[in-house]
Amino acid sequence: MILPKQNEAFEQFLETVYENGVLTPETTTLVFLGAAMAIRCKHCAERFIAHAKTLEVSDEQMGAVAAIAMCVRAGSARALAFDLAEEQD
After folding, report:
1. What's the CA gap between 58 and 78, in Å, rounded?
2. Does pLDDT of 82 surpass 90?
3. Which in 18, 37, 40, 85 has the greatest CB count within 10 A?
């Protein structure tokens, strides 16, 4: 479905974002992982878990990121519930 040229452009974009020069590779990978978990992208989460393991990121660190992603996701549902309730008033 995705043309090779488009896929190559995406991979280059990903590499540019990953090699940002500001965050450590471990931190960048954990941010990617948290975002992937928050939006429920299984493919992305698996990719960044595997990458985190190559960087020797601990299970505890990945667990902390998972908990943060759960809070973000739950916060989104909470905000939606408040918005919907307010519309009903």
Report:
1. 30
2. yes
3. 37
DSSP collapsed to 3 states, the chain = CCCHHHHHHHHHHHHHHHCCCCCCHHHHHHHHHHHHHHCCCHHHHHHHHHHHHHCCCCHHHHHHHHHHHHHHHHHHHHHHHHHHHHHHC
Give the model's pLDDT for residue 81: 94
Domain ranges of the chain: 23-88
| Residue 68, helix vs strand vs coil | helix
For the record, the structure tokens of 79 come out as: 């905000």
Does 1.10.357.10 match the CATH number of domain 23-88?
no
Angle between helices 4-18 and 25-38 (to 10 degrees): 120
* CB of 26 closer than 8 Å to CB of 53: no
